[in-house]
Amino acid sequence: GADAPSGVAAYGAARRATGHVNGCVSDQAHAVLSIFDHGFLYGDGGSARLRTYNGQSFLFDRHMRRLRRSAGMLALEIPLTDAQIDQRFNETVRAAGLGHGPDREAYIRILVTRAIGELTYDPAATPAPSILVLGTPDLDPPPEVCGRALAGPTARPLPPWTRHSPRADSSARTSCAPPGTSSCPRTSAGS
After folding, report:
1. Strand order in the sheet with 130-137
2. 55: how many CB neighbours lie within 10 A of its CB?
3. Which of 97, 92, 95 is nearest to 109 (CA)?
4. H/E/C letters for each residue in 13-52?
5. Would you say 172 and 48 are in contact if contact means Cβ atoms under 8 Å apart?
6. Environment class of residue 58 by beta-carbon count within 10 Å: exposed (0-12), middle (13-18) or buried (19+)?
7. Does pTM top 0.70 for this prediction?
8. What would the pLDDT profile of 85-99 be if each residue is shown by its tens digit?
9. Could you tell me which of 152, 158, 153, 155 has the C-alpha nearest to residue 182?
10. Tens digit of pLDDT for each residue in 156-186?
């Protein structure tokens, strides 16, 4: 809003996304998915969230195994090979102007949805899934965002499984990492 700190506004602008939707790369204003996609209507799909380190995808194979296992539990076939998804990953990173240095790392979401089909719960009604790769810069939020998120009467210490580590799965990462791993200060309420 109008009273939002300038760091928050700058953070939002810096997190502009690039989307690779069913083979087409575009900015976030033009990356679209139909409202009739079963991923939107029924939450029918799976996702993997990962990031780059030194411009390279982190634990890509492990994330793809997990995504394929999750999709398999939904009887959702992923028609692309891991190499084809990796190609889309890299195209998205390049289109977003990311991956060229330590301050240009990418946070990527790979989503597979059941796609458009008849308005039914029958998986056979949606024979060709949608494949989305969404990329944003991997940035720490400004201190005023973390302070607002952690301050207040309900603030408590973060559970250990939410703390960021380069060895941890990025989907378990919180937006405000513990002291020493990001620019976010720890509030007295969370100490």
Report:
1. 24-27, 18-21, 130-137, 106-113, 45-53, 56-57
2. 16
3. 92
4. HHCCCEEEECCEEEECCCCCCCCCEHHHHHCCEEEEEEEE
5. no
6. middle
7. no
8. 999 999 999 998 888
9. 158
10. 555 554 444 443 343 333 334 334 443 333 3
